[in-house]
Amino acid sequence: MTDRYARGMEVRRAVLGEAHVDRAEAARTELDDPFQTLITEGAWGTVWASDAITRRERSMLTLALLAATGNFEEIPMHIRATARTGASPRDVAEAFQHVAIYAGVPRANRALKIAKDTFAEMESEA
User: Fold this and answer.
1) Helix residue ranges per DSSP H, the chain
2) In contact, 99 and 107? CB cutoff 8 Å
3) In degrees rounded to 5, what are phi and psi of residue 72?
4) pTM for this structure?
5) Which terminus of the chain has a lower count of CB atoms within 10 Å, N or C?
6) Degrees, nearest 5: CA angle 62-65-68
7) CA 6 from centre of chain
């Protein structure tokens, strides 16, 4: 295990939560092991571990990029992470406003619906 991997796993757990990471790790197989290592070191151990911007800001950027590129299946996970990163529902809405202007209203509209549904689920689970 590299230092970057260890730091990545620490950040991943802090952002996504213990339960989420435990489920992902339990589902890990020989087939996706190299990919899981790549994202743990690259996304979590490098990008998310950087202190150049806050985790709140990183959440907003991530959600905007996911919506702008149409990667909607990742949005609920990152909406749930806002509970740990400090990005508020208003922050998320503001990020999706940017998506509407720079990447298209349909993508922002769909992302906002997913966010509303996920925030409602989170509220009912509390």
Assistant:
1) 3-16, 18-26, 33-39, 55-68, 75-85, 89-102, 105-125
2) yes
3) -70, -25
4) 0.94
5) C
6) 150
7) 19
